[in-house]
Specification:
There is one protein chain. The protein is globular, with a radius of gyration of 28 Å. The chain folds into 3 domains: 6-37 and 108-529, no CATH class; 545-629, no CATH class; 638-714. Strands 6-5-7-8 form a 4-stranded mixed β-sheet, with no helix packed on it. It has a 4-stranded antiparallel β-sheet with strand order 9-12-15-14, with no helix packed on it. The chain is α+β, with helices and mostly antiparallel strands. Helix 5 (130-155) runs parallel beside helix 8. It is built from 28 helices and 16 strands.
Length: 754
């Protein structure tokens, strides 16, 4: 059969893409409707009244059991940072610096912060009020990832039905829920299918043009991500090179050169932000140590539970994946139980050696191999289970192979069918018998053990009510009392029987099975992804009696607070929530930061010159604490190196500027105890005023006698060089594409003489 001309395929493909997008958008809105219309917010704000005693005013009826405590990072740092960014952009300011937490630190370069370079975030945050913008910037990556995967599967020649299901499975795969607290990872992986498709075309046509074009989605990957996610494109590139270069020595020059050029050019486009992130990485003091287990090297093998992830429990009960120092292990790569079996069938499909299908399948297997390699070695503590998106890409492509095989060749596969049915029955029997009959016999002992371990938990402050609930909730999560497990079981049974005895209309049956199998995945996403009433967020943002009392005392002169408590949940500003109230504190919430809290005296105490007020909560569970002012000595943030009668006051402070008034007097050196960081300068420059480093992490500012106004401005050192690099990359891309197009026209018009 003659191949359809490319120009004739374009309108049809556009209609198909529009059809898929309509389905994708409909399902997304059904799942997230309350957040989409502004009734709820994508943040676990119910954690505050349940875990933080000083925020109990938000919901006095809270019993200590939030809807999902796994996403606590969102309330401890994500929503407050995004609120600062939105407010800065609304007033026309670039949000470079966070002056409030950790005694000041870079904001835009923060590794697990706000990815202000995401083009969609820039557009949405400038267009919508904060709550609507915060919700929609989380919805957009779902839509992009599904559409880009659909496009990839159609580009690779898979059927419309298999591409449609693959796009939806990738869009709502478990990793998108499990890592919802890290929006940068999901946002960056949304563009990976575009890289795959463009690189495939470059290899297929043997043209560098497609690798040059792929630098644009590569740039989106880096602009949408963070320092952690920037390493994943190189893992993806390695898997792609293995898939397309295996036994194809003639391709390696184009593979290595093309992929290397695309990723390098993408990094250059993102250089204004990436360079600052790298700078922070090398200047930080990192004190977070990864949780380890003697079984963590078995994480890859244990991931096989992804066929039925409830075997390890869920976030609402005991999670057995913590044996491997992980959380929700099976759900990271979950795309639906029946879909996982079809992907396994896709693994067994035969492809013609040297064909494009062989390259695609080999790449999918290489992506799975990368995931299992990372999860089975010490690389796990470098890349984490966040590489699950690579495995999911491989799984959905294998699913497409399996789908095409089942619909084009509906012969009986009795062995596969009986294995599927038997496995489903055994799993269901084990979970239901164990949950209803065996588990209750040991529940009291398990609760005692869990509460004992709770006292030494390093990653979540004590929450005994939550732990008791988790222990009691096991049967409700893993047995058929949970509709998710019942529907997943039904999908497996239906698929198994279909494999044993194919029906007369296999496509219709497979579509029905996939619907039944995908509902548990969608329902899990709906339960896991936090959507809480907007009223709770408004109460948090307004502050309670303690937050207002403390912030009012600090606001007058930009004073700094030290908090002391038996746990982080007891703080009046837990994590980085001080950002919401514009309160300057010594603590924060970050993995990469320069912490003043680490500079303690011989007795392990923070020296008084670093703070003006101390807020102490001596016991757990108290809704108020004691606020004490440090009565003697100079201001914590500014004092003279030698006794000098010149008062210093803050005139204005934003996310990248600080303006001081200095009383007339003799020349002297002013010590600024905010975190010293390269990039701070006088703006405008004042003759005689110099800034230099003062140990351990302060700034020494020489102030001449006649100077009474100091205005400091922060701008990342590599911002302007990065802009030049990005502009040069854009020019280079245009030139190369024009040269490639001209060369193609010359070849097309050349007719050799007879």
């Amino acid at each position: 059969m003659a191949q359809e001309p490319r120009f004739a395929r374009r309108p049809r493909r556009a209609r198909e893409a529009a059809f898929f997008f309509l389905i994708s958008l409909t399902i997304t809105l059904v799942l997230f409707w309350p957040a989409a219309v502004g009734e709820k917010i994508f943040a676990p704000v119910d954690i505050a009244p349940n875990f933080f005693p000083k925020f109990r005013y938000v919901d006095p009826t809270a019993a200590g059991v939030p809807a999902n405590h796994y996403v606590i990072d969102m309330i401890l740092g994500d929503i407050s940072r995004n609120q600062m960014v939105h407010a800065a952009w609304q007033r026309g300011e670039m949000p470079w610096w966070d002056p409030y937490t950790d005694a000041g630190k870079p904001l835009a370069a923060e590794a697990n912060a706000v990815n202000i370079s995401d083009p969609w975030k820039v557009l949405i945050f400038h267009s919508l009020p904060f709550e609507a913008a915060y919700n929609w910037i989380r919805i957009v990556p779902f839509l992009i990832s599904g559409l880009s995967m659909f496009w990839l599967l159609r580009h690779l020649g898979f059927s419309l039905a298999s591409a449609l299901w693959s796009g939806l499975l990738f869009q709502f795969a478990g990793c998108n829920a499990m890592m919802f607290s890290g929006p940068t990872v999901q946002a960056s992986f949304a563009y990976y299918p575009l890289l795959w498709g463009l690189w495939d075309r470059g290899i297929g046509e043997g043209k560098w043009r497609w690798f040059i074009i792929s630098s644009l989605p590569a740039a989106l990957v880096f602009l949408s991500g963070n320092l952690q996610s920037h390493s994943y494109p190189f893992l993806f590139a390695m898997a792609f090179a293995i898939g397309y270069g295996w036994r194809h020595q003639s391709r390696w020059l184009l593979l290595v050169g093309g992929i290397g050029f695309a990723l390098t050019l993408g990094l250059c486009f993102a250089a204004p932000f990436v360079l600052s992130q790298i700078e922070l990485f090398f200047l930080n003091v990192r004190r977070i140590h990864p949780e380890t287990s003697r079984f963590d090297s078995l994480t890859g093998l244990a991931s096989i539970v992804g066929f039925f992830p409830w075997l390890f429990g869920t976030f609402r009960t005991l999670d057995l994946s913590k044996v491997f120092a992980q959380t929700g292990l099976g759900f990271w790569i979950y795309i639906g139980s029946a879909a996982m079996v079809i992907a396994a069938l896709g693994f067994r499909t035969r492809t013609t050696p040297g064909s494009r299908n062989a390259d695609v399948k080999r790449t999918a297997l290489a992506l799975l191999g990368v995931y299992f390699l990372v999860c089975s070695t010490p690389l796990l503590h470098v890349f984490y289970t966040r590489v699950a998106w690579l495995a999911v890409m491989g799984l959905v492509v294998l699913f497409a192979f399996g789908w095409n095989e089942l619909t084009s060749n509906p012969n009986a596969r009795r062995r596969w069918g009986w294995v599927t049915v038997t496995g489903a029955v055994l799993i269901a029997a084990a979970l239901n018998v164990g949950g209803f009959l065996i588990y209750p016999q040991f529940q009291s002992r398990i609760e005692t053990r869990v509460l004992e371990r709770e006292r030494t938990n390093k990653f979540l402050d004590q929450a005994p009510a939550l732990r008791k609930f988790q222990v009691a909730n096991w049967p409700n999560e893993v047995t058929f009392k949970n509709p998710e497990t019942a529907l997943a079981f039904a999908g497996l049974i239906a698929l198994g029987l279909t494999l044993v005895r194919p029906p007369a209309r296999p496509r219709l049956w497979l579509h029905s099975i996939l619907v039944v199998s995908t509902i548990p995945l969608l329902w899990f996403d709906h339960r896991y992804i936090p959507m809480q009433p907007m009223a709770l967020w408004e109460k948090i943002r307004a502050g309670g009696p303690e937050q207002r009392r403390v912030s009012e005392n600090l606001d007058a002169d930009g004073l700094r607070l030290l908090e002391s408590a038996p746990g982080g949940h007891e703080h009046v500003f837990p994590g980085a929530m001080a950002q919401l109230f514009k309160a300057h504190v010594l603590h924060g919430h970050s993995s990469l930061t320069l912490r003043h809290a680490g500079f303690k005296d011989a007795d392990g105490l923070v020296p008084p010159p670093l703070y003006d007020y101390e807020y102490s909560s001596p016991a757990r569970g108290r809704e108020s604490g004691e606020l004490r002012a440090r009565k003697d000595g100079p201001s914590a943030r500014f004092h003279w190196a030698a006794p000098l009668e010149r008062k210093v006051g803050i005139v204005a402070e934003t996310l990248c500027t600080l303006t001081l008034d200095v009383a007339p007097g003799a020349a002297g050196d002013l010590i600024r105890t905010d975190t010293y960081y390269p990039g701070w300068r006088m703006s405008p420059a004042v003759p005689g005023v110099t800034i230099r480093f003062e140990p351990p992490c302060f700034s020494r500012i020489h102030v001449p006698a006649g100077v009474t106004r100091l205005r400091f401005k922060y701008e990342p050192r590599f911002w302007r060089p990065g802009l030049f690099l990005a502009a040069g990359s854009a020019v280079l891309t245009v030139v190369l594409l024009m040269a490639s197009a001209r060369r193609s026209r010359i070849r097309a018009n050349f007719t050799p003489a007879l």
